[in-house]
Amino acid sequence: MCLALPARIVERLDGDQAIVDLGGVRKPVSLALVGDAQVGDYVIVHVGFAIGLLDPDEAQRTLELFDAMAAQAAAAPAAAP
Amino acid sequence: MAGKKDYLRPIDFRHGRIDMNHGAGGRLGAQLVDELFARAFDNDWLRQGNDAALLELPAGHRLAMSTDGHVIAPLFFPGGDIGALSVHGTINDVAMLGARPLYLAASFILEEGLPLADLKRIVESMAAAARDAGVPVVTGDTKVVEQGKGDGVFISTTGIGVVPPGRRIGGALARPGDAVLLSGTIGEHGVAVLSKRESLEFETAIVSDTAALHGLVAAMLDAVPEGAVRTLRDPTRGGLATTLNEIARQSGVGMELDEAAVPVLPQVEAACELLGLDPLYIANEGKLVAVVAPDAAEPLLAVMRAHPLGRQAARIGVVADDAHRFVQMRTRFGGRRIVDWLSGEALPRIC
Amino acid sequence: MKYVDEYRDGELARRIAARIAAEARPDRRYHFMEFCGGHTHAIARYGIGELLPPQLRMIHGPGCPVCVLPIGRIDQAIGLALQQRAIVCTYGDTMRVPASESLSLTRAKAAGGDIRMVYSAADALKVAREHPDREVVFFAIGFETTTPPTAVVIRQAQAEGLRNFSVLACHVLTPSAITHILESAEVRQYGTVPIDGFIGPAHVSIIIGSGPYEHFAEEYRKPVVIAGFEPLDVMQAVLMLVRQVNEGRAEVENEFARAVTREGNLAAQRLVAEVFELRERFEWRGLGEVPYSALKIRPAYAEFDAERRFGLVYQGVPDHKQCECGAILRGVKRPTDCKLFGTVCTPENPMGSCMVSSEGACAAHYSYGRFKDAAVVAG
Question: Which residue of C has its CA nearest to B345?
Fold first, then answer.
């Protein structure tokens, strides 16, 4: 329910702080909830905190799933919505 | 017999601050006007030293006049400052009527404690903006308020310009079938200012797009027959969405926009995503919307794109016949939504 | 923006929409509740409703923490600012919610209350450090996504020995809300809200994992598909739900596998468990009192609990008699069923929280979708 976005960790700072990058915009966030996150990882950011890691393999699989759906749709004639 | 000239210590712009004496109407106030304002704006009218400026106007023209108050904080932001903003903003409002801006007036409410170095920077920025635009500040005023009663400085500018005979450009003139054009990318000014607000703390290369648009407007109006440009408006506070809704309401029409056609810089998109804001509602200070006759669209786009302030001009939609005056949009995603009025302040959200 | 733009591809959307239309049986109706306000917002903003077949309807659920925040809690926050003269820090979403005596946090600010909008709980801590002579209260709202950050700052405040910081904890729980809906009279007995399945919240699930939803699938025989926030995620989840219904399955599927695992973020869960405990009951706007549905601060962190610190008493405040937010939050009515919608109640003058929060069903419909209520002729 919450406004949260995937951003890339570009720099770790003191303590739990880090800088993330989303589309060229940089923001400081806290990594207190994702202790093992590294520079280069993508995290989901919500209210200034990284709340979880994004799994690039799963992300790719999801996109492939969309493509597969789309291919199926192309193969079988579909009823108009 | 000549007496000794009155000696006044030159103003210390580096370390000095505005104090209540500057606003008392006495020698110190006059000195501030002389050493800062008059020197920076430097024109015959100010040199005359009268309370009002006597102006020449070309015969047969009607007067266009506009006024704006500027209360922006912070005073300095990436790409500009309150001074440049106050000059550009008023020039633009006058130009949106199809008028040639001629003169500006500027009134300053200074807060006790404002560093003179900041004031000098602002005034010099204004003077440069006025010079570059070819529109002089011919009269002005300063007042001082106690500390805590002003945000550093408030600036009010009033501009006058002239409209040639036979020209009618206004918000009530849009008709179904007209093309809706936008001169460039949206959301930069608002994002640049937000990036300086302490509590939001994000870093971006986005700078304000503040600029005087009268040159672009003149080029556009020269390129097409009189009447082909129905409406001109600059989407400032409230953004593009608000401006389009205003025009729709004034003209009693609807609009259909194409989201994919609205140019937005990737960093502006990203910053808006992060904060939960919509670029359609973010202020611009160097862009214009034009509602034009359908066959004037292509020639105008060509002229706009040839101008430095219109390189990314785009056709973003069409005016529709709609009694409800909805501004609708086909989303990039293929769905449809309305682009409604902004209600209240656009606040960053968590949800 | 990487991992965002790819999930907004319009071309793919059309093809998934075609798939949904092909697989949705013409002889039956499908009703899916998107629990989460973020999904409501995405559906409205991208115009997804238009892309779905007519026999498929999305029902808006109560997963909007501002929408379910009772007036009485906002009154408490306002009281802290105006009477106790504390600096009240709050997320932007709550500022315009109408409260008692024609006030809102924005209006209380205009009346002299020191109310500051913050983007993060950490900002509230900063304010407390900068004003050691003032009481600083953080108004903590939100579902499970937003709770861990509050837990982090409370622990930080304790570690730093901050004496002037406290939290008004109004964090609520997702599974409780879903149970409440499924247990509600309308669903259980009368079938007025025929929910065939749920689109599960994206970011709450990052924290709690997909595990907690298995209970609903089993107990109530309702499929749940956890979906990401991007429009393609939502479309895909709808397709997965249609398939489950057609095949007579009731499982938990995870479309948001790129960020959600079965266990969720254990570190975050541990932190929350350390700082918070369950409240026996908590009033939800529109749903009434729901047992074990919200959190309060544990005794170990009592000094950071604003309710204890200021001796706050909760006073429930009933909604406007004609406000249908309650029914709308439960999915029983639509915004257009409310007499106040679009007349007295608008985003400028919100009568209830469904209109204030941009993800509230009413605000979303008003801002993005009300053209559907009127016949429009394009020129």
Answer: C96
Neighbouring subunits of C (3+ Cβ pairs under 8 A):
A, B
Asked, for residue B55, whether it belongs to a domain, the answer is no
**Mean pLDDT, residues C35-63:** 87
The chains found to touch B (3+ Cβ pairs under 8 angstroms) are A, C
For residue B345, the one-letter residue type is: E
Chain B, nearest residue to A47 by Cα: B350
* CA dist list (Å): B247 to B91, B250, B290: 20, 5, 10
Instruction: Give the residue from B134, B163, B192 where a domain finishes.
Output: B163
Share of chain C above pLDDT 90, in %: 62
A75/chain B closest Cα distance in angstroms: 21
d(CA C68, CA B240): 32
Q: Which is nearest to C269 in space by CA: C218, C344, C192, C207?
A: C207
Residue B4 domain flag: no
Query: What residues make up the domain containing B74?
Result: 20-49+62-163
pLDDT, tens digit (0-9, with 9 covering 90-100), for A22-58: 888 898 999 999 988 999 999 999 999 999 999 999 8
Distance CA A39, CA B210 (A): 36
Q: Where in chain C are all domains bearing CATH 3.40.50.11740? A: 1-321
C359/A1 CB distance under 8 A? yes
- Choosing from B163, B194, B222, the residue where a domain stops is B163
Residues 284 through 343 of chain C touching chain A, CB cutoff 8 Å: none
> CATH number of the domain that B319 lies in?
3.90.650.10
Q: Is residue C184 scored above 90 in pLDDT?
A: no
Q: What is the DSSP string of B81-132?
A: EHHHHHHHHHHHHHHTTT-EEEEEEEEEEEETT-BHHHHHHHHHHHHHHHHH
Do B183 and B159 fall within a single domain? no
Average pLDDT over residues B241-269: 96
Q: C149, C295, C174: which is closest to A52 by C-alpha?
A: C149
Residue of B nearest to A46 (CA): B350
Q: How far is CA B325 from CA B31, B50, B248, B292, C346, in A?
A: 54, 49, 6, 18, 17
Cβ-count burial C196-214 (b if 16+ within 10 Å, e if not): bbbbbbbbbbbbbbbebbe
Interface contact B320-C376, CB threshold 8 A: yes
Task: Give the count of domains, chain B.
Answer: 2
Same domain, B137 and B203: no
> What's the 3-state SS for chain A?
CCCEEEEEEEEECCCCEEEEEECCEEEEEECCCCCCCCCCCEEEEECCEEEEECCHHHHHHHHHHHHHHHHHHHHCCCCCC
Mutate to test the interface with B, among A25, A45, A46, A51 (most CBs of B within 10 A): A25
Please tell me whether residues B191 and B98 are part of one structural domain.
Answer: no
The whole-number average pLDDT for the span C57-71 is 86
Query: Between B and C, how many residue pairs show a Cβ–Cβ distance under 8 A?
Result: 125
CB count within 10 Å of CB C162 equals: 19
CB of B318 within 8 A of CB of C379? yes
- CATH code for the part of the protein at C1-321: 3.40.50.11740
Mean pLDDT over all residues of chain C? 90
A4-75 placed in CATH 2.30.30.140: yes
Contacts of B268 in chain C (CB under 8 A): none
Contact (Cβ atoms closer than 8 angstroms) between residue C359 and residue C40: yes
Phi, psi of B52 (to 5 degrees): -135, 160
The CA angle B273-A1-B242, to the nearest 5 degrees, is 45
CA angle B287, B293, B299 (to 5 degrees): 65
Tally the C-alpha atoms within 13 A of residue C191's C-alpha that lie toward its C-beta: 1
Give the nearest partner residue to A51 out of C1, C207, C239, using CB atoms.
C207
The C-alpha angle with vertex B307 and arms to B306 and B309, in degrees rounded to 5, equals 135
